[in-house]
Amino acid sequence: MSRFVDRVTIHAVAGNGGHGCSSVHREKFKPLGGPDGGNGGNGGDVILRVDPQVHTLLDFHFRPHARAQNGKPGAGSNRDGGHGETLEMPVPDGTVVLDENGRILADLVGEGATFVAASGGRGGLGNAALASKARKAPGFALLGEEGQTRELVLELKSVADVGLVGFPSAGKSSLVSVLSAAKPKIADYPFTTLAPNLGVVTAGASVFTVADVPGLIPGASQGRGLGLDFLRHLERCAVLAHVVDCATLEPGRDPISDIDALEAELAAYTPALSADHGLQDLADRPRVVILNKIDVPEAAELAEMVTPDLEARGWPVYAISAVGHVGLDTLRFALAQKVADHRAATPTPVARRAVIRPIAVDESGFTVSPDPAVPGGFIVRGTRPERWIKQTAFDNDEAVGYLADRLNRLGVEDELVKQGAVPGAPVTIGDVSFDWEPQLPSGDAVPVTGRGTDIRLDRTDRVGAADRKVARKARRHHADDGLGPVDGPDDWSGPDGDD
């Protein structure tokens, strides 16, 4: 038996990037031909794509875990690893993607609309890509990045033109079955539908969709019953139609009180898509009142009695019998006209363009703060430092040195000095903790300078070329005057004291 599932939680895991390769080119008579390790391939993404052939989230209910393929590692001879295959998952039109905190990430409407649920990790660089003038033959490569892992909530908000609202057993499912080819469950005993039913209605040249929304009772907007589970299916409806049971035998029930109770629930419910999509509140949508079951004589009399009061509110009223097929043609064409008026007044939606907000390349992107759990320790946080930690193979000393160079160029070491870090202070970046050893010479205290520089190298007693040239001219001048040779900076005596 088929099931209708309109809310699921999925666990999306993107593919990991492949590791870079550390390799040296070798051939006959040329054993050291330079680095030739290839880059690792990128991991595959997990993508949600709207498919018009999918109408429920049932597949995700039974298979909530989605994992994309990992990237392949690089190889020698400058061979890059293959990229992981992207995993595309079809979702029905009208699917809304939310994060674990309930924030809307995407509203997938229209065939082909896509959303990247999880991004694949980037492949690591091989040693050929890491070669530079200062590092001719790197003996290491970078590891691939891990793919993104996300917990997402998918909600299906039916894309319908007319939404039928009413108390249980008011005849909404019966009305959908006679207006369209849909075949919802119908019985001659009271029960409430547990899943929205969607039908396509044809009225002359007009075609529109109708959906019944079950489970609406007083208190539905606060979560009573099934109200919150199905009220969201009304968010996209252009016209709301009250289906009223005029033949009910329950005490205290009448068409006016039923409509007032449901109107209070619609006014109290705030659509989640209103702010982002410019949709009106449910209380401001066009209304139609459908008085059902007039094939019962008492119901026909009651419908005729309450019609003037309802029309006084400015709402069109239609008395029908879904079982007896009475008044259906008039209702069908009236709903088609309401939908046509809404479509004419609503501007044609423009396809949304992807907005890319790249991070500035010159942004420092890190913070250094004292570690509350370790006295004298520090924690470095930032996207790039944490990513570099994951890319480093700590069993390779050269790779660790390359990581230290990257952190120093980013300014992490300077910031640690400003924060008062001393040699041997425990520093934590991501999941790795180590004892910090700054690039300082041993012995006397020396002011901190950039990595690879030493202020003591600037202090030297060696005579420069300009001074030697001046001394040479002075000696020649003394020799011409007959004053004899003058010892200068560039005088040199051999091992035996001879020139």
UniProtKB/TrEMBL annotation:
It holds the Pfam family MMR_HSR1. Belongs to the TRAFAC class OBG-HflX-like GTPase superfamily. OBG GTPase family. GTP binds at residues 166-173, 191-195, 212-215, 292-295, 321-323. Residues 457-469 have a biased composition (Basic and acidic residues). Signal peptide: none annotated. Gene3D superfamilies: GTP-binding protein OBG, C-terminal domain, GTP1/OBG domain, P-loop containing nucleotide triphosphate hydrolases. Its cofactor is Mg(2+). It is an enzyme of class 3 (hydrolase). It comes from Williamsia deligens. It comes from the Bacteria. Residues 34-44 have a biased composition (Gly residues). InterPro entries: G_OBG, GTP-bd, GTP-bd_Obg/CgtA, GTP-bd_prot_GTP1/OBG_C_sf, GTP1-OBG_CS, GTP1_OBG_dom, GTP1_OBG_dom_sf, OBG_GTPase. The keyword Ribosomal protein does not apply. SUPFAM superfamilies: Obg GTP-binding protein C-terminal domain, Obg GTP-binding protein N-terminal domain, P-loop containing nucleoside triphosphate hydrolases. Residues 358-438 form the OCT domain. Its main location: cytoplasm. It is found in: Cytoplasm. An essential GTPase which binds GTP, GDP and possibly (p)ppGpp with moderate affinity, with high nucleotide exchange rates and a fairly low GTP hydrolysis rate. Plays a role in control of the cell cycle, stress response, ribosome biogenesis and in those bacteria that undergo differentiation, in morphogenesis control. Mg(2+) binds at S173, T193. The keyword Nucleotide-binding applies. Residues 15-45, 64-87, 457-499 are annotated as: Disordered. Monomer. This is GTPase Obg. Residues 2-159 form the Obg domain. Residues 482-499 have a biased composition (Low complexity).
